[in-house]
């Protein structure tokens, strides 16, 4: 992934860091919010929907980045990440309809975080 999508989510006041660490932090923040909101969804449904939407925006941004011809990631990895975007989008719709659980979305993000850390995750 390139720095472009992540930096759109990173505060201008954030200290200088590598693109990879910035991406990691953005995904980690979105994942933490989604995980917490998922656990409290019956008590604070509007916050849950907000966190779900934020996760969708993250994945939409990542998808646009990996679809860009200038993206330097290997083609196979770009395709996998784009597939995860499509799955996340479809699954989020099912979650909103009450036909699916959001926990799998947290698991996907966590696997991507492990990949960014270099500890696996299957992305």
UniProtKB/TrEMBL annotation:
The lineage of its organism: Bacteria, Pseudomonadati, Pseudomonadota, Alphaproteobacteria, Rhodobacterales. Keywords: Cell projection, Cilium, Flagellum. This is Flagellar biosynthesis regulator FlaF. The gene is flaF. Pfam families: FlaF.
């Amino acid at each position: 992934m390139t720095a472009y999508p992540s930096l759109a989510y990173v505060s201008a006041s954030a200290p200088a860091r590598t693109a990879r660490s910035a991406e990691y932090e953005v995904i980690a923040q979105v994942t933490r919010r989604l995980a917490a909101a998922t656990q409290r969804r019956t008590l604070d449904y509007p916050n849950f929907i907000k966190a779900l939407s934020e996760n969708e925006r993250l994945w939409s941004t990542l998808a646009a980045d990996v679809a860009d011809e200038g993206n330097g990631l290997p083609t196979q990895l770009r395709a996998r990440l784009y597939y995860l975007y499509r799955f996340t989008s479809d699954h989020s719709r099912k979650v909103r309809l009450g036909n699916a659980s959001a926990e799998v979305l947290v698991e996907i993000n966590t696997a991507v975080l492990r990949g960014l850390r270099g500890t696996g995750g299957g992305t």
